[in-house]
């Protein structure tokens, strides 16, 4: 089995993608609502990743 080597950023984006898909499937009824909600959640996850990254960068000096 090949070894997968992901950076922290890539792993975070992958987590955001899969979590958004699951949240969309579990919480909404129609396919259109699921897709919209999954995209909405993914956008907020990515925004949080970048925001927290900058906060940690500025905090470490």
Q: Could you explain the architecture of this structure?
A:
The chain has 61 residues and is mainly alpha-helical. It has one domain. It contains two helices and no strands. The longest helix has 30 residues. The chain is flat, with a radius of gyration of 15 Å.
Please name the defining characteristics of this protein.
61 residues, mainly alpha, 2 helices
Produce a short descriptive summary.
By secondary structure, the chain is mainly alpha-helical. The chain is built from 2 helices and no strands.
Provide the fold topology.
Elements: H1 8-27, H2 31-60
Gap between N and C termini: 40 Å
Poorly predicted regions:
none
Main sheet characteristics: none
Q: Overall pLDDT, averaged?
A: 95
Tell me what portion of residues adopts beta-strand conformation: under 5%
How would the global form be characterised?
Answer: flat
- If you compute it from the alpha carbons, what radius of gyration comes out, rounded to the nearest whole angstrom? 15 Å
Sheet/helix structural class? mainly alpha
